[in-house]
Amino acid sequence: MDHDDDVTAPRIGAQVKARRKARGWSMRELARRAGVSQPFVSKLEAGQLLPSLPTLYGLAAVFEIPASALLPSPEAGRSAPEVHLPLSETPGSADVRLIAGGAGSAIQTFEFSLRAGEGDLEFFHHGGEEVVYVIEGTVISEREGLPSLTLGRGDSLRIDPSVAHRWTTDAEAAVFLLICSEPPAALSSPRG
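RESULT FIELD:
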């Protein structure tokens, strides 16, 4: 872990643990529902690792809460807490930085810095809306059942994130912003 992960990992882990216990689930049950291993849940709850961005959204879906509810809250005067999440659970994966949003925010803005050929390993989906804006390089939007779209510097695209999708790069590195909104029902949901 690096950056301010020494603070972020325990905060996310504590949120996951509290929500799991409130549901009366064992670690094994949460792992089964979220599609991760029980040792992963144990390390996550102990603050020893950070979930990837897709895993964060997967955990939020299991708990029926917005993904932002698992993130730390922004400090006074800041637009976002200092949060860096891995793109995947693979060691050395790209860094995804939260640049706006956090707990209690309706919109999360993430900055992806991907090397050539990197991207999401698996397709995932979530509620709300999603917009991507390419700052550098080329980004490929792959959506299940739809043709792939290639976006270059300055291009933007709004997609329906309930359709399983992933973002990848081609033969060059890319930097892009991913802006995700929470579904209105999730923001007002009393569950937790």
